[in-house]
Amino acid sequence: MINENLNFLLWNIENGADEAIDNKPINYFECSKKQTKLKDSLPEDNIKNNNQRDKIIPKQLTPEKLLEVKSLQDLKIALNSFNACSLKTTAMNTVFGDGNPESKIMLIGEAPGADEDRMGIPFVGLSGKLLDKMLASIALSREKNVYISNIIPWRPPGNRTPTPTEVALCLPFIRKHIELINPKILLLLGGSAASALLNTSDAVSRMRGRWFEYSIPETNKKIDALVTFHPAFLLRSASQKKLAWKDMIMLKQKLADLGEI
Ligand code: URA
User: Is residue 145 part of a domain?
Assistant: First the structure.
């Protein structure tokens, strides 16, 4: 019996259920249906009336509809009504963004981990702590002058890498997010962010330490984008920290060139 239980536990972990949240199992499929209904019946913070709500949240959200999104609050609402990405059904929270939305620097990671999923805030776990230290080393912080989000707003089970389909489904949202923040500089953390936004399959080790241009599709505005290692990778490969440090110096130099520090 003990062996059977152990095997069952290992099977769950292999399938991405790596946290015991409650004593009783919860049917999240049932639960997410109920939550959607509940959300639909709640007045959202900044939606004055139902007409306005229907304009922003069509029953079936299409990326084209995102053109009508004009604020971060609307984007949050649009994301909450988007049900085409199955990662949403296993995640506890939608992890939207954190930091100062007026920032000239926007950081983009891959997807929330367990801590981020629990708290609904990007980069609050171990890699987030390292990221905060990296930022502090060049006098940046999310409290003051940095805004942070991810390519994917829902935690992939077991922290697996998001699939190309999941990235493609979520890409219009992060693109809109960038457009709304309108930063002068993007710092892309790791391969998923770099390849999704720069449309390349190059290894991070080849892309890091170089400036790229990210184009906002709607306005054709160009934003300087620097690629660096993901902090979770740096936690596993401490010897690469010296290269990440060089990237931070490059970032600081660019900020100085742009007159932002
Ligand atoms: N890793 C990411 O890419 N994003 C997070 O928010 C946390 C860990």
Answer: yes
Residue the block writes with tokens 């930022």: 135
pLDDT of residue 65: 78
Mutation pick for ligand 1 pocket among 108, 150, 229 (CB with most ligand atoms within 8 Å): 150
The domain total for the chain is 1
Residue 202: which domain range? 95-257
Question: Considering the chain, what percentage of its residues have pLDDT values greater than 90?
Answer: 72
Give the pLDDT of residue 261: 85
Please give all residues whose beta carbon lies within 6 A of any atom in ligand 1, as ranges: 109-113, 116, 122-123, 127, 150, 232
Instruction: Please provide the average confidence, as pLDDT, over all residues in the chain.
Output: 87
Instruction: Return the structure tokens found at 153.
Output: 């707003």
The C-alpha atoms of residue 181 and residue 179 are separated, in whole angstroms, by 6
Dist. CA 92–CA 138, nearest whole Å: 33
